[in-house]
Amino acid sequence: MTYLLIYFAIISLVAFAVTVFDKVRAMRGGRRVKEATLLFISALGGSGVMLLTMLLIRHKIRKKKFMVGIPLIILAQLAIAVVIWRVFYA
Predict the structure, then answer these.
(1) For residues 26 and 24, what is the distance between their CA atoms, to the nearest angstrom?
(2) 60 closest CA partner among 48, 47, 51
(3) From residue 27, how far is each of 38, 47, 71, 73, 87 by CA, in Å?
(4) Which residue, 3, 44, 53, 68, is most buried by CB atoms nearer than 10 A?
(5) Quick check: 68 and 42 in contact, CB under 8 A?
(6) What pTM did the predictor assign?
(7) Angstrom distances, CA of residue 40 to CA of 1, 18, 28
């Protein structure tokens, strides 16, 4: 369980950093992070932090792919967590 918490802490930090990095690059006209990369990091477990970060820094909030996609990823992750919990811990 400790390793799982460490993993989620790291992936959340990565999600935050990559989202902020992409926002800074967008403002400065630099090379951007691919949308697929952002969604992949979200699917790896950084979805909650990524969504909060995007809302706080107002990044990609007009893109339906992110404002619908990331909440759907969160719901899927919660559903998977419930199934795992019931199979292994109930």
Answers:
(1) 5
(2) 51
(3) 17, 23, 25, 27, 46
(4) 53
(5) no
(6) 0.91
(7) 23, 12, 24
Q: Taking phi first (over 0 means left), then psi (-120 to 50 degrees means alpha), and beta for anything else, what does residue 60 get?
A: left
State the amino acid at position 6 in one-letter form: I
Phi-psi region of 75 (alpha: psi -120 to 50; beta: other; left: phi over 0): alpha
**The two structure tokens encoding residue 74:** 């969160």
* pLDDT tens digits, 65-82: 999 999 999 999 999 999
User: Residue 85: enclosing H or E segment and its boundaries?
Assistant: helix 69-89
Token code pair at residue 71: 């909440």
Cβ–Cβ < 8 Å for 1, 9: no
3-state helix, strand, coil in the chain (%, to 5): 85, 0, 15
User: HSE-up of 36 (CA within 13 Å, CB side)?
Assistant: 0
